[in-house]
Write a structure and sequence with these properties.
Blueprint (H helix, E strand, L loop, with lengths): L1 E11 L2 E10 L6 E5 L4 E7 L4 H10 L1 H9 L12 E4 L2 E8 L6 E4 L2 E5 L5 H27 L6 E5 L6 E3 L4 E5 L7 H13 L8 H10 L3 H11 L8
Parallel strand pairs: 2-4, 6-8, 9-11
Antiparallel strand pairs: 1-2, 3-4, 5-6, 7-8, 10-11
Helix pairs in contact: 3-4, 4-5, 4-6
Bound molecules: zinc ion (ZN).
């Protein structure tokens, strides 16, 4: 069981670092972990260890913590000159204020018309639309293979999951999986579609996933290792 205490800002070698302190009955020692999505540090204390002792420990490990933070990938804004990957292909964002239209693809670039303040939203809208299209046809094709019907597909931006399946046969996906390689998007879709048959992670569930997505193990590993990097865009 884990109990969260208040987050605090620690000053480590003159830099402010947000730290979330939590108590855990299962922990056997003090531990530190960087949350790659938020840049916050989780400090876990076993029961019986005072918070002040944990904070001393964090101060001792200051240079290790700061090295981890510095190694995080830089955020990539949706702005002129940024490069965004779409299903394994890199696109350069080019702001074209003089052009008419909204967003269009041209020779490896993503062109965005209109005023500067709208560029970011327009790119994000285009990515969401692309995600919805690429996810939807695959989901229906996979569902057909398993003789199931999908009630609804929605595209969202959850913080910690790439997809979900409700017991009413509604699937939901993060639009950010369109930023991952194509095989990873296919795996996430296959995973949720397989839940239409098995609402669990049993051996039978994984064998269904492998039937419709033979390379799923590679993609699962990619998500585990690199999935957090999809949150640095936009
Ligand atoms: Zn699952």
């Amino acid at each position: 069981m884990t109990r969260k205490l208040r987050s605090e800002i620690l000053s480590l070698n003159g830099r402010d670092v947000p730290v979330r302190v939590q108590l855990s009955r299962r922990a056997s020692h003090i531990s530190l972990r960087l949350d790659e999505r938020t840049g916050e540090v989780d400090l876990t204390l076993p029961t019986g260890v005072a918070k002040s002792e944990g904070l001393d420990f964090a101060h001792e490990k200051a240079s290790w913590i700061l090295r981890q933070i510095d190694a995080l990938p830089e955020p990539v804004p949706f702005a002129d000159g940024s490069v965004v990957p779409v299903m394994g292909t890199d696109y350069l964002i080019r702001h074209r204020p003089e052009a008419r239209g909204a967003v269009w693809v041209e020779e490896g670039s993503l062109n965005v018309a209109g005023g500067e303040p709208h560029v970011s939203r327009r790119v994000q809208d285009w990515l969401k639309k692309t995600a919805k299209r690429e996810i939807t046809w695959r989901a229906h094709a996979y569902a057909h293979q398993l003789s199931r019907t999908i009630a609804r597909i929605s595209i969202r931006d959850p913080r910690s999951r790439w997809g979900s399946c409700s017991d009413e046969y509604a699937l939901s996906f993060s639009w950010r999986i369109v930023l991952a390689p194509k095989g990873v998007l296919e795996y996430v879709v296959a995973h949720e579609v397989a839940h239409l048959v098995e609402l669990n992670h049993s051996a039978r569930f994984w064998s269904l996933v492998r039937d419709i997505c033979p390379d799923c193990d590679v993609s699962k590993y990619w998500l585990k290792r690199d999935g957090a990097t999809l949150h640095r865009f936009g």
